[in-house]
Amino acid sequence: MSEKIIIDTDPGIDDAMAIFFAFQSPKFDVLGLTTVFGNVPVDMSANNALILCELAGKTDVPVTLGMSRPWFGRPSTYAHFVHGNDGFGDINHPPAKGKLDPRSSAQFIVDMVNQYPGEVSLVPIGPLTNIAAALRLDPTLPSKVKQVVLMGGTARAPGNVNPVAEANIWNDPYAAQIVFAAEWPLTMIGLDITDTLRFNQDFLDALEQGNSVLGGFVNKISQFYMDFYSQGQAQRECRFHDVITLAYILHPEWFEVEQCKVMVSTDELTRGQTVCCPKGKGISEPWTSGPYANVALKVDEDKVNQLYKTVYAL
Questions:
Q1: pTM for this predicted structure
Q2: What is the mean pLDDT of residues 225-244?
């Protein structure tokens, strides 16, 4: 039976990789793409999500417009220097033809989880603002969600927007703290894994050879992305952070995880830091009680790499 998922997303180049992977895999039933600000403004996120649905022939998948700014504090400055001014590496793709679902992203999440209680996995691969908003709309959500598998944070690896924080969490640390404090099964796929998995031009060419439309699109938009990641390096390569969440849902046995209490810093100096205390290691509150998250620390890289190529070629 296929896994029902909602991908909460801010496309974004690596988001495109993840969304196409989910569309291609027969093991996923994508209930919708809920968009949020992050890599790009939320209006652009929504347009890009519609484009990805059209390219994949999935125009029946609902796309919703979500939160346009963090839960609290200053607006995002976006990551155009990583993803291009259009979020797709400045390839000037025509605007989407499709229309958005009229519901907000938070309302869509609540509606789907209540329609399929115990069956829906939430896959947030952008800032967690929509997920926090959905929790405010329906505080019983954690008892009805199958699991949350998010891309964000870091336990031991350095940050990528400041010395200690990962970008998705940094973009809205207040929302992230709300999400980590909820009593639901939650797995954090952070920079401890995603920053170690490097993908080069041979990998992108293999995706295109396996699927000329979707793989070809990822190859094209990733050139800008690779330019960013390869500054000062001899070899051109990039990271596809977001898709690893989906590999975890399919094959959690490939991952080494540790149960941790995760708290998020909202102090300006350490904004977005995910402080991870292994279960049983805390000596005072709030570290001596849950909720606890599964924090991914290692993965079988060869198996993940082969999975991506195989699914894209289906």
A1: 0.97
A2: 92
Strands in 120-124's sheet, in edge-to-edge order, are 63-64, 28-35, 3-9, 120-124, 147-151, 186-189, 293-299, 255-264, 274-278
Question: Of 107, 99, 121, 96, which Cα lies nearest the Cα of 30?
Answer: 121
For residue 252 the two structure tokens come to 């959690």
- With a CB cutoff of 8 Å and minimum separation 6, the contacts of 54 are 96, 97, 98
Active site residues: 10, 241
Mean pLDDT for all residues in the chain: 96
Q: For residue 166, give the nearest of 190, 130, 196 by alpha carbon.
A: 190
The answer to whether 128 and 176 have CB atoms below 8 angstroms apart is yes
Instruction: Please report which confidence band the pLDDT of residue 271 belongs to, taking 50, 70 and 90 as the band edges.
Output: very high
255 pairs with which residues across the strands? Answer: 299
Tokens of 176: 């992230």
Please state the φ and ψ torsions of residue 240, each to the nearest 5 degrees: -110, 80
Distance CA 69, CA 82 (A): 19
Q: 3-class DSSP state for residue 141?
A: helix
**What DSSP string describes 29-72?**
EEEEEEE-SSSS-HHHHHHHHHHHHHHTT-TTS-EEB--SS-SS
Structure tokens at 32: 């919708």
* 6-15, 147-156, 177-186, 233-242: the lowest-pLDDT one: 233-242
Q: How confident is the model at residue 99 (pLDDT cuts 50, 70, 90)?
A: very high
Contact predicate 189/151, CB 8 Å: yes
